[in-house]
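User: Sequence recovery, please. Input:
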């Protein structure tokens, strides 16, 4: 793997495999950029298209690590999401998953725990998926990712962008499945519930065959569990508390 450049700027650490993006990082910290479009702005996540010196990028700030106590505590021991994602996706691309949208830079403000973090991604101008053959390509790419023992984590068609006849993958941390296929199974179970997949009546089972081992059934229980009424109620209750300012 190529060298990771690291630099301190103000209270932040900048990381990139290409030195030129450290410059861009300093500009982002100085808020010296234009926001072109906000794709997402919730208490969990911020995603926007930005412009710096005539170039477009996507800036993403995952906030779960900062607001959820049990995740924040883990950042004492671990690198944190954005730096891991920069490393995982870069390695994944090197190992042949060229469909991953390229991560360019990670920005981290961490004292003992994570305080603030950003990942800068290449901006992809493209279209949403719509057809059966688009989903065929999603399956192909998924097989490639899984073959590399990685998983997506939120495998649905809105996390792919179509560029001419190519399809690119976004919204993944590129992590390895260290749970003996459980995460891969979870990916497939997620894709089966995707809106476009359901609308087109697309059969995932016919296109992606894998042996249903214990991990698959565990993933199935986890996935179905999320839909159970009692668990739904518990989640609604958590949501209510969150609105009241509880950090759970
Ligand atoms: N690199 C990119 N190039 C172009 N558009 C992007 C890029 N990354 C994200 N987007 C747009 O921003 C949206 C949200 O980004 P992303 O999926 O990474 O975040 P998210 O919070 O997980 O969103 P969601 O919950 O909707 O899946 C995407 O659906 C896509 O439209
Ligand atoms: Mg998404």
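Assistant: Recovered sequence (248 residues):
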């Amino acid at each position: 793997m190529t060298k990771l450049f690291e630099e301190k700027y103000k209270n932040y650490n900048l990381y990139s495999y290409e030195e030129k993006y450290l410059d861009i990082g300093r500009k982002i910290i100085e808020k010296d950029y234009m926001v072109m479009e906000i794709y997402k702005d919730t208490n969990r996540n911020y995603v926007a298209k930005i412009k710096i010196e005539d170039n477009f990028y996507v800036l993403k700030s995952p906030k779960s690590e900062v607001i959820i106590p049990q995740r924040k505590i883990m950042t004492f021991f671990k690198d944190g999401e954005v730096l891991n994602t920069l490393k995982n996706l870069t390695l994944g691309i090197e190992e042949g998953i060229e469909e991953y949208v390229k991560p360019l830079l990670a920005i981290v403000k961490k004292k003992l725990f994570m305080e603030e973090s950003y990942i800068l991604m290449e901006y992809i101008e493209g279209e949403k998926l719509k057809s059966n053959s688009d989903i065929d390509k999603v399956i192909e790419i998924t097989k490639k990712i899984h073959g590399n023992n990685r998983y997506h984590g939120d495998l649905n068609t809105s996390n792919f962008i179509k560029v001419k006849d190519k399809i690119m993958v976004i919204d993944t941390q590129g992590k390895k499945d260290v749970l003996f296929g459980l995460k891969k199974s979870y990916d497939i179970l997620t894709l089966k519930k995707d809106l476009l997949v359901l609308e087109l009546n697309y059969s995932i089972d016919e296109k992606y065959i894998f042996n249903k081992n214990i991990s698959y059934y565990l993933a199935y229980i986890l996935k179905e569990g999320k839909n159970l009424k009692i668990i739904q109620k518990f989640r609604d209750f958590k949501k209510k508390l969150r609105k009241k300012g509880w950090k759970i």
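The CA atoms of residues 65 and 71 lie 5 Å apart.
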